[in-house]
């Protein structure tokens, strides 16, 4: 697999994960357990931060590739 294809695959996976995270959040209050809801929101936030780190890193890598074309 070439680097641009890998970057696209990772971006698409991050997008799909984010869409799934958005399905979790509104369902949490229906568990009717405050502690579970708080811990789940905290975990979702932490996972989102980590996913954003991945996206930033591949963005930098992509920009570095683009700059070598100049």
Protein architecture, described:
Helix content is 86%, strand content 0%. With 70 residues, it is mainly α. α1 (3-27) runs antiparallel to α2. The chain is elongated, with a radius of gyration of 17 Å. The protein starts with a helix and ends with a helix. The mean pLDDT is 92.
Which terms summarize this structure?
70 residues, mainly alpha, 86% helix, elongated
Task: Summarize the SSE layout with pairings.
Blueprint: H1 3-27, H2 34-68
> Unreliable segments (pLDDT under 50, ≥5 consecutive)?
none
| Most strands sheet | none
Backbone structural class:
mainly alpha
Number of helices: 2
Q: Could you tell me the number of beta strands? A: 0
Helix content: over 70%
Portion in beta strands? under 5%
The run of helices and strands is HH
Q: Indicate the mean pLDDT.
A: 92
Query: What would you report as the Rg, rounded to the nearest angstrom?
Result: 17 Å
Brief digest:
This protein is mainly alpha-helical.
């Amino acid at each position: 697999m070439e680097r641009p294809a890998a970057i696209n695959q990772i971006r698409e996976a991050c997008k799909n994960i984010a869409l799934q995270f958005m399905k979790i959040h509104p369902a949490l209050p229906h568990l009717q357990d405050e502690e579970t809801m708080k811990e789940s929101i905290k975990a979702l936030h932490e996972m989102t931060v980590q996913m954003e780190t991945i996206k930033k890193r591949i963005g930098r890598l992509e920009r570095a590739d683009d700059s070598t074309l100049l």
